[in-house]
Amino acid sequence: MQETGSISIHTENIFPIIKKFLYSDHEIFLRELVSNAVDATQKLKSLAQLGEFKGELGELKVKVSVDKEARTITIADRGLGMTAEEIKKYINQIAFSGATEFVEQYKEKDAATKDQIIGQFGLGFYSAFMVADNVEIFSKSYKEGTEGAHWVCDGSTEFTLETTEKEDRGTNVVLHVAADSDEFLEASRLRGILTKYCKFLPIEIEFEDTVINQTAPIWTKQPSDLTDEDYKKFYHELYPLSLDEPLFWIHLNVDYPFNLTGILYFPKVKDELQLQRNKIQLYSRQVFITDEVKDVVPEFLMLLHGVIDSPDIPLNVSRSFLQADAAVRKINTYITKKVADKLSSLFKQDRAAYEEKWGDIGLFVKYGMLSDDKFYDKAKDFALLKNVDDKLFTLTEYTEHVQANQKDKNDSTVVLYTNDAEAQHAYVAAAQERGYDVLNLDQVLDPHFVGLLEQKLEKTSFKRVDAATVGQLIEKEETTESVLSEDDQNKLTTLFVDAIANPAMHVKVAPLSPQDAPVVITQNEFMRRMKDMQRTGGGGGMQMFGAFPDSFDVTVNANHPVAQKVLSGDDGGKLAKQAFDLALLAQGLLKGEALTAFVKRSTELL
Ligand SMILES: Nc1ncnc2c1ncn2[C@@H]1O[C@H](COP(=O)(O)OP(=O)(O)OP(=O)(O)O)[C@@H](O)[C@H]1O
């Protein structure tokens, strides 16, 4: 029997379109054909289990081979096979309609969306035509008494179908590689593609006499059957270049209301610059799909490594659809919850070990708290704050810790912090001398984290140690009297204004404690934050603050002996300048010419 026919058409000649537009991703043809072969093999295994197939299963390997001379690639399986009728139904109709649907979706999209569709669309059998100008199927069904079938199609909509002698059950797909696809005749190229997409397929895939896959990767097993070593070994298999051990991992395993398995690893991160995204690999039934897991994994968890496997993630739709997809949203929520639960149990079980890891996980936790309210609610109990003495506190512990000393006159807690303990040393020391505690918040995310905590914690504000003189950082009821008359205070102000001669420095005289510095330079917390945010590109409303030059408050301590000296001496101006420069020095602001002048003047004074 031989039959020729025409594949029913909905869209005009889809093959040129498939060829042209899928250019960047031609290699996925092999993933598609090998997974079809694997599916067919698994279906046969299921039938055998159900008792519907009673024959010998025998060896079930899928064999991929290449013949450079003949210019063919063959994918051979011993799965359930197809009769001629089934080829007509499954290949001519179903596979074709998949391809047609793809092209239709594809045509409507802009270039950016097109790129995304390509990577995620399971194009199926017809992706063979991306690299072949002629495709043959030789198949024989597992059903007893059926004849072998031979289908040939040259990439037009015409096909031929005839009966053929085929000894063995299963399907051989033979691709006659097109002239512009020579690269796929190279064994090394094929091996590369197989390793990328098929490394964890559940049926053995043989290429050049070696099996290229692990059929039962550890994420498909029960956590109770696995040791720490198994998890670490797998981590290094996934990331052969990583020298560090993962900090810990989470084994995901859920079958309702969606299906998801996987392992997420917390990598060791030394600093934020090292963070690598796209380290999570997404699989669908053990077939590698992509390492762009955006939208499937919450943004803040993109920093994790590992594997997620879910048949419920729709792969054949555009990204905007993926974002809106209910299953994807549920997966997102589930992963977030799992991560929070894991961190919480680590914290509760072994606080010391958790504190040791805080340097590495702090960033994830803070990022998560900033980007996800639900995560904040869980993480607030295990997020830690570190003070300048390297002691770690939970949020509640810290509030209790500073309760006694750091309440202002309105009964609000003022949390003091430094973002550079070295540069702000003088301020940190002054605050500590007063019995205040100072937090070390020097990481990239910390300015945002401070903002978040102020919103969330009741009656609490944060001030950087150099935001005011130590006496004014936490405003109390009691005030110190000035030993200077009002007249002297005005005189002192003028002396300093003239000596400094810089309009960005706002001089005021105030009665600080005689133990405080003679002159203190501070930068208002609010203005500084606004400018910081503007610098880091935060929001349009902040724009106006960026236009202002940096301005500082210069507080002259009326109660310090230096104030008297400046007022009484002949070269009060020079002393004022000297005292001001010392304050600049403490703030790390004295540089260049001003520094040279200061050194010269100091020598003279000596
Ligand atoms: N090697 C094979 N053995 C048996 N049947 C096959 C084989 N390859 C394809 N088929 C049949 O042809 C159908 C169409 O295949 P195609 O790859 O186009 O789509 P699919 O596998 O259903 O979906 P996907 O788009 O996810 O690949 C399959 O559903 C299957 O019934």
TrEMBL record:
Q: Which NCBIfam families is this protein grouped with? A: PRK05218.1
Entry protein name: Molecular chaperone HtpG
PROSITE patterns registered for this protein in UniProt: HSP90
Q: Which gene encodes it?
A: htpG
**Which InterPro entries does the entry link to?**
HATPase_C_sf, Heat_shock_protein_90_CS, HSP90_C, Hsp90_fam, Hsp90_N, Ribosomal_Su5_D2-typ_SF
What UniProt keywords are attached to this protein's entry? ATP-binding, Chaperone, Nucleotide-binding
Entry annotated with the keyword Oxidoreductase: no
SUPFAM superfamilies assigned to the protein according to its UniProt record, in alphabetical order? ATPase domain of HSP90 chaperone/DNA topoisomerase II/histidine kinase (SSF55874), Ribosomal protein S5 domain 2-like (SSF54211)
Q: Which CDD domains match?
A: HATPase_Hsp90-like
- Keyword Nucleotide-binding present in the record's keywords: the answer is yes
Family the UniProt entry places it in: Belongs to the heat shock protein 90 family.
